[in-house]
Write a structure and sequence with these properties.
eight-stranded mixed beta sheet; alpha+beta; seven-stranded antiparallel beta sheet
Length: about 800
């Protein structure tokens, strides 16, 4: 049963709220027109923002197994490990990559056209601008300054600019030289001439293909220079990279902007720059290998040419074309020793190269692995490849402009420890090489003794032939390795390929969203007044509905008194057919029903504060009771601020206060009114000690006398929450009516009076809700019933 009542109460509350909202219909109408107007302005004048997207996917490795099995390629393939999509997404959100794309598209200069006003701003021009600006990047330029161009003819133009807080920017150093400078320019210049000043230097060229004198006169053209870092940051915010799906290796890249063509070109150029950079990283080892081999070949070539020339000249001069069998055997043994020595020299040269590289370079990206120099050292090869992988990871973090990344310090520490391990390994290997070379020197000296016994001519030829063979072998080996590295670099390709480039037909408009804006406008048109009503009710300290009273007292109110729109307060007497007179008859009937078993003689009417309408209720209730033949007397017991005598139109010279001080008898203060069966006792002159007199019981006899003379005694007392008189008068009352006034009585003051009643165990009371607008009540539709 409780749940059913709660449901009905809740439904009633919703209905009441809807009724209340209907009373604010003009506010809803105004809100509707304002919100619709705002939506119209937003849809019409907001710049159109386009979003384009592109999809890239990993490339399957289809290179031949022959290339993959080569030792050199195994070193070059160290970076071709399985791709990590999350790392690639982070790499695509690269600050340096965006900056590179901006430079490639020459976006450091922004071109604009159109006039600026309250509802519209100039639009950016990407292609089709009638002029092009070329800046001297070695000279400082003012950024955040609008240079207005007014094309006079095909040879000249007017240049104007005015800015009080311009910053001077150096494009080469990527740094602001000074800020808050004043720039003021107004001059006529010629196209293709360099305009130079201490704070700028550039030239303007006319694009005749896009120059139209008629349209140029109507448009306002201007351009401005940008700080590359700030521009890159703004572009990076408009970039979004995410996988196509959770388990997919495909990556979608989104970019938005106001210029559709610029947005498409930037995204396509950005992705191509990423693929080029990815390929360059994969070719880094091959490039380093080729550079290392080129430096060695340049030294070997001169030695080979000289050895070949010396051998040829010696043979020609001494008429020697071949060696004897003994000489050939000695030469073969010497070649074997020299081959071993050359291998050791290559290793020694590579180890010294590593020590020299570490000493002169901080970036390890250019370091060639041992396999590139034909150094068969698996341990060293593994250490160098690990160092290159750590350095590549560090470069990825720095490319994302994450100097404060938590893992950066850990990676740099690993790089430092890896370098120390490589240096220690190199020094140990160099010591081992020295011992091996000493052994080769001993074998060579022993063989030299045998060769010394050969004829002099043959001995010299053996020496020359040995030197030529050694140099030729090293030269041939380096050429082979150079070719292998070039083939490896030519066979490389990026880890990703473009599956779906950004296109004009796939571009979507993300702002303004016209339909969504209309829906938001309609929603806000309803929500703004509704929120206003809710907040108004929440912060309202006054009783504004019958539900407020019922919530405070926990029971229904006894009766509703409608708002008095008449110029008299005697509505029962003067307008007996009105709705408000009917509400007093309802109050009278409710009291009679309540008193049917035990008639109550004395009814006290009070309120929680002044101006609640207790005197108005008292006078009209008394008139209503008298109108049905009951002898009724009305007492004005508001001895502080009496007003009933004015409503009853009776002189207040002699009244209740005179009786209380024994200056008048009861028969002297009881006045007959114009209403049949209704008598009135005015308050009389104001007394300074009325509370003390009432508490002393000076009214006891009078009340008893009135109860015998009249059927009903109506007492209009002082406000119960303000002075003590009302509390003292309660002892005479058989029943109490507590009046509260709609949108006037304060909730806290009214609640204080209720607490006063509870504290004193006063239960014989009911609430009369006064000043309720009939049109806003549940009976509002019957308002015309009372109008003739």
């Amino acid at each position: 049963m409780t749940n059913t009542n709660d449901t009905q109460s809740e439904a009633f509350n919703v209905k009441e709220f809807i009724t209340e909202a209907a009373s604010y219909k003009y506010l809803y109408i105004a809100s509707f027109f304002v919100c619709i107007l705002i939506a119209f302005l937003v849809n019409k004048f907001s710049p159109t923002v386009f979003e384009v997207n592109s999809v890239i996917g990993p490339v399957e490795d289809k290179r031949s197994s022959m290339l993959g099995s080569n030792d050199l390629f195994s070193g070059l393939g160290a970076l071709a490990e399985s791709r990590n999509v999350e790392n690639d997404i982070n790499s695509l959100n690269s600050f340096s990559l965006v900056a590179t794309t901006i430079r490639n598209l020459n976006l450091e200069i922004g071109y604009f056209s159109g006039k600026s006003n309250l509802f519209q701003k100039p639009s950016q021009v990407y292609l089709g601008n009638p002029y092009t600006v070329s800046i001297d990047k070695s000279h400082i330029q003012p950024i955040n300054t609008k240079f207005h161009i007014d094309i006079l003819d095909e040879q000249s133009y007017r240049l104007t600019a005015s800015e009080d807080e311009a910053a001077y920017y150096n494009y080469i150093d990527n740094a602001i030289v000074s800020d808050k400078n004043r720039v003021n320019i107004d001059t006529i210049c010629r196209f293709n001439e360099t305009i130079s000043s201490y704070n700028f230097q550039f030239s303007v060229a006319l694009n005749k293909d896009f120059y139209n004198p008629a349209s140029t006169e109507e448009s306002d053209y201007f351009f401005e220079f940008y700080h590359l870092d700030y521009l890159t940051k703004s572009y990076l915010k408009r970039l979004k990279v995410e996988p196509v799906s959770i388990r997919s290796s495909l990556i979608s890249i989104f970019f938005n902007g106001e210029n559709k063509r610029l947005t498409i070109d930037f995204l396509n150029s950005y992705i191509q720059a990423y693929l080029d950079e990815n390929l360059a990283k994969k070719n880094k080892i091959a490039v380093n290998t080729i550079n290392f081999i080129d430096s060695q070949i340049s030294e070997i070539t001169d030695d080979l040419t000289q050895s070949e020339s010396e051998l040829r000249d010696y043979r020609s001069a001494h008429q020697v074309t071949d060696l004897s069998y003994q000489g050939q055997q000695a030469l073969a043994q010497l070649n074997q020793i020299e081959n071993e020595r050359s291998t050791l020299q290559v290793q020694e040269r590579y180890y010294n190269y590593i020590l020299d590289y570490f000493e002169k370079n901080q970036d390890m990206a250019g370091l060639a692995p041992p396999s590139a120099a034909n150094v068969m050292d698996p341990i060293m090869n593994s250490l160098v490849l690990e160092l290159l992988a750590l350095n590549a990871e560090r470069s990825t973090i720095l490319s994302n402009n994450a100097e404060k990344n938590l893992f950066l310090g850990q990676i740099e520490n690993k790089i430092r420890l890896q370098k120390q391990a490589i240096i220690e390994n190199v020094k140990n290997n160099l010591n081992t090489l020295n011992l091996t070379q000493n052994e080769l020197d001993y074998r060579e000296s022993k063989l030299s003794g045998e060769i010394s016994r050969l004829p002099r001519t043959e001995l010299n030829m053996v020496s020359m032939q040995r030197k030529f063979n050694l140099t030729d072998a090293i030269y041939t080996f380096l050429l082979e390795k150079q070719s292998e590295a070039a083939i490896a670099m030519a066979s490389n390709y990026p880890d990703y390929e473009i599956l779906e480039p950004a296109r004009d037909v796939t571009a979507a408009i993300i702002s303004p969203r016209t339909s969504l804006n209309w829906l938001i406008a309609l929603f806000m048109a309803l929500m703004i007044p509704t929120i206003y009503i809710i907040l108004r009710n929440f912060f309202n300290e006054k009783i504004s509905s019958v539900r407020d009273v019922e919530h405070l007292i926990g029971q229904p109110v006894m009766n509703l008194i409608y708002t008095n729109y008449y110029k008299t307060e005697s509505v029962v007497k003067d307008y007996p057919g009105s709705s408000i007179a009917e509400s007093f008859r309802n109050l009278r009937s409710s009291l009679f029903l309540k008193f049917r078993s035990m008639p109550q003689k004395v009814i006290m009417i009070t309120s929680s504060q002044p101006q609640d309408g207790k005197s108005f209720v008292s006078s009209n209730l008394a008139a209503s009771i008298a109108s049905v033949g009951h002898r009724t007397v009305l007492l004005d017991c508001d001895l502080r601020r009496p007003t009933l005598h004015e409503k009853m139109k009776i002189v207040n010279s002699v009244g209740l206060s005179n009786y209380m001080v024994n200056n008048a008898a009861s028969k002297d203060i009881i006045k007959k009114t114009e209403i049949e069966n209704l008598w009135f006792i005015p308050a009389g002159p104001i007394l300074p000690n009325s509370s003390e007199l009432i508490e002393a019981g000076v009214l006891d006899n009078l009340i008893e006398e009135l109860k015998h003379q009249f059927d009903y005694v109506i007492i209009d007392s002082t406000p119960a929450g303000l002075v003590a008189d009302a509390t003292l008068m309660i002892k005479y009352a058989d029943y109490i009516l507590l009046v509260c006034r709609n949108d006037y009585t304060r909730k806290d003051v009214f609640n204080d009076v209720l607490n006063l009643f509870r504290t004193n165990d006063i239960t014989d009371y009911d609430i009369v809700f006064n000043d309720l607008d009939l049109k806003k009540s549940r009976y509002g539709r019957y308002d015309n019933y009372y109008k003739q």
